[in-house]
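From the pipeline queue, job 12 of 40. The input is one protein chain; the requested action is below.

Action: predict structure.
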Amino acid sequence: MDETLRESHPARARPSGRAVSTLLVLVLAGCVDFDLTLKEDGSGTFTLQSTAPNARFDLPRFFSPHVKVLSVNRTGVAISLQGTFDDVTKLSTAEMFRRFTIRRTHLGGQERLRVLYRNPALVQVPPEQRGVWVVNIGVDLPAPVRFANRGGVRTGARVVWHVPLADFQEKRLLKLGLRYGSGNVEPAPAGNARPKRHGAAVLGHARIV
């Protein structure tokens, strides 16, 4: 095990203070890439890499009963952390990811993954800084990607988002969503359809009341 990781194990570390999102802190210092690999059962691994002088990870904040750090490596000004999780929807049990809510929904032959980032403190980004910093988020899935929002680039079973840092800073909520699988999306049961109101008539594709 990496010596830095051994010294920073939560069992021997001091209690951490208020968590600050790792992605935002590191992006301000340089380039950040976050890659996640998801298995069929919802478990998987992740890699967080930052290219910035003197960048460090606050390792205790990456640990929880469901999230573990496997290794930390430094090469020049680049530092990378590799971790594992037993359930992607429980990543937020680690303090560093607590602002992210992840939901996984079965849709017949496909599955939907939704990520919601909550920003408790809005910051107005100066115009000259817009577009300068970007968070690169990549996800490898166990089946082909069928849909990704926010212009996610799909290549087989992988999707990559390039999200401006300003979006994390200026918006209260930021949503990432994707759908993957080889089957068709299961249609909603007929019993869940909204009943027509009395006196409603359907004309072509328009509904007139």
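Job complete. The first helix runs from residue 3 to 7.
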